[in-house]
Specification:
The chain is built from four helices and no strands. It is elongated and about 70 Å long. The chain has one domain. Helix content is about 65%, strand content about 0%.
């Protein structure tokens, strides 16, 4: 049977991912520290800790993939607009901005997907925290199980 202490620890493990706004990589450090200290105390805490760590690792992997896809589109567009031939000691240096390229639209769409994904990630963490408070283990969608 679960007591309130176990539910609170599981809830704080999920909520500790918000420490990323104050500490670099806090979304990994907080849950890993809380989980590693408390995982032997309860199966419920262990399952919640693994769930949030797997989710954060999955989100990190998806962000790397999305960044790898989107950054080249912006870089190619930026460098295609710079005219290096007319560079004469800052007197005639200019950047021409033409009509938007399809590459820019693709990069912008991938950036919008990243922003929407970030908002969904925050909402899922809050939902998982509320489920842990109620004594349930939340199964995050699109999560790769690195820790079993």
């Amino acid at each position: 049977m679960l007591d309130n202490h176990q539910k609170n620890i599981a809830t704080f493990i999920h909520l500790s991912t918000f420490s990323r706004f104050f500490i670099p990589f806090g979304n990994f450090i907080g849950p890993i520290l809380l989980w590693s200290v408390n995982k032997d105390k309860s199966e419920f805490i262990d399952r919640n800790g693994k769930a949030i760590i797997n989710f954060q690792l999955s989100v990190f992997l998806y962000a790397i993939i999305l960044g790898t896809l989107s950054i080249p589109f912006f870089v190619f567009k930026i460098f295609s607009g710079i005219d290096f031939i007319d560079f004469n000691a800052f007197e005639s240096f200019h950047i021409t901005i033409g009509k938007p390229s399809p590459l820019l639209y693709i990069g912008g769409a991938l950036g919008a997907i990243a922003v929407i994904g970030f908002i969904i990630e925050l909402a899922l963490i809050v939902v998982a925290s509320l489920k842990a408070r109620d004594g349930e283990v939340y199964k995050y969608p699109f999560t790769i199980n690195f820790l079993k």
